[in-house]
Amino acid sequence: MHMNKLKILMLGPSESGKTTIANYLSESINIEEAGPPRPTQGVRIVEFELPNINVNGKNTNIDIELWDCSGDHRFESCWPALRVGVQGAILVCSPTTTQVATRELELLYNYFVSQPKLSAKQCVLFYNCTNDSDDIESLTLSSTFSKVSQVAINLKSGGNRLKIDFSNYITSVLQAINRYA
């Protein structure tokens, strides 16, 4: 079974750590090498292969096209183009962005998940914890997110856990796509 690339958008407020997560998942950096956040201009596409994903009982390799999208609203005019052919959305926020995050995530979810008619299974929320005392419970989201998986991630202490969470997420995207294919 061979599939085309999976187009996954990574979205969220500026400085929530999207690029670091994208780089880590695609294995282009070690976390120790991650410098201070630099704003992404528009979008950056990271392509990599995710091995051994279980699809309908068979292990397969999936090509991922991870679109690391800027959180800067200057680039909002690009949103319609970003949304074309989207198969999944990863929303990212961090303790430093929780004040703006609630409204921002709602807007992004509406535009990139609800409007293109993705299911909640095709979306995941990564709460990017920068230290161990950060708690996902401090994130108060609307009922819109009641069906969306919300995962606290900590790259410094739990990078491998993030890879597992990401693989699980990709599996749920594939299941959702196959159901509607």
Question: What can you see in these coordinates?
Answer:
There is one protein chain. The protein is of the alpha/beta class and 181 residues long. The protein has a single domain (6-180), classed as 3-Layer(aba) Sandwich (Rossmann fold), CATH 3.40.50. 31% of the residues lie in helices and 27% in strands. The protein contains 4 helices and 6 strands. The protein has helices at 18-25, 79-83, 98-114, 155-180, and strands spanning 6-11, 43-55, 58-69, 88-93, 123-128, 149-153. The protein has a 6-stranded mixed β-sheet with strand order 2-3-1-4-5-6, with helices on both faces. A hairpin with a 2-residue loop joins β2 and β3. The longest helix is centred in the C-terminal third of the chain and has 26 residues, at 155-180. The mean pLDDT is 86. Keywords: GTP-binding, Nucleotide-binding. This is Intraflagellar transport protein 22 homolog. InterPro entries: P-loop_NTPase. GO terms for molecular function: GTP binding.
